[in-house]
User: Fold these one by one.
Assistant:
Number 1:
Amino acid sequence: MQDSATTASRPSHRTATAFEQYVSGRRGIVEGAVFFLESGDHIEEVLHAAEPCDIVIAPLRHPDPRTIAYDGSFLEPGDEITLGGRHTFELQDYVAVPFTTFAGPTVVRQFSAVGIAAFLSDADTARNSGVFVGQLLNTEVLLDSWASSLAADLIGDSLGRVHVTRHGEYRDGPDGLLLGSVGDERADIEATAAAGTGRGRSFAEVVDPRVLEADLDDRPWFGRYLAALDLMRGWEGAPPRPAISGFGRHLVAVLDEGGAYPSILAADAPFLVTGDGEEYILVDRVSHRRLRLGVDSARAAECLIATSEEFEATALLATELGTRVSRVAPLVRALQDRFAATGFDVTGYRRHGS
């Protein structure tokens, strides 16, 4: 006999993951696309367009097993929604985040060009000074449409979510690119989504996507910033005031100078995080592995991540410390052996740019 608690948790997990995909715009959290309906008026047309693996979140109960019912509203700051009778989320405006204390699960949305500008400005502050908006690191917070700021090749297939307005419009998020309207075939919706995969598509009604695309081009490290937020938000027991290497500064100072070793890493490269500057934690977001390192080993790890090659990493570390390569080579070799033994891969993440 199956454990009843385990059986009951399956619909709850399905609801939570489907809503996360709808909110974030990130593909692949659930198998199909997630449709979110402002009104139940269009439920039959949407179900007709949806595929068997899709999920439809609607403000009514429906016998179709693809549907998840919700109560409440989710359009304006302060609105609350309860999904499947169990999961309740509040909606807040990004511009209010620094002044907000979160009492429970909260979705933070950019409702205006002012919100988008604040989002970019906060990212600049984190990049330049290492100071993050503390509320964005809260485990209760979901950042709306964050995947829209990533290049299409980082987020998978073209159709991950469809927001259905009360007027019957299909959009990529509440203020996103127009994908079609109720009555359109699924293939037509997918084709429009595939043609509009540019960054900023989820804010098309708020700001000109071309302007936002240019702003993001000026910040080639933005994917790394989003990854840092995601890492810290999902890390229970993280340092209360984390310092993340690459935000504000690096342990290895030459990496802040650009040159042969640019400071921009791939979004999924491991992170070095510390709370007191004496002990570092190397965190792999992909495998969820963590490894505690002293300062010397953390410097060596940073060199390995930056160069993706043991010999170059050894030379870089020697330059940083003002010593001979032969003095630091045993440390780098020992660290490589430790990574291999624990399943850590710190190579392959070097990017070009500054």
Number 2:
Amino acid sequence: MNAPNASNASIPLVYAPRGELLIPAMKVTGLLRRVAAGWLRSAQAGGTDLDPTTALALARQLSDLADQIDVECIAVRRPVDEPPAYGGGRRGEGDVPPPP
């Protein structure tokens, strides 16, 4: 049996209440890191028009973006047993409890 091809992998999609289409941040950061690694491998093997210095700079930018997304997701993540904020979980929106 053939190994699964990453290009045929399915990504779980979520439709938000306002119709936005969402994908898990973990999938986005993984993709960013795989693209960065691919650029580096390709540049080292001479299989791209990018010089190694440019490939390294681009790969660092993608890796930094992936790290930033991870940090922001950790910052807004709440413990499993904690109820969502009054504003529906968005920071800064509706953080004041409704009147009794």
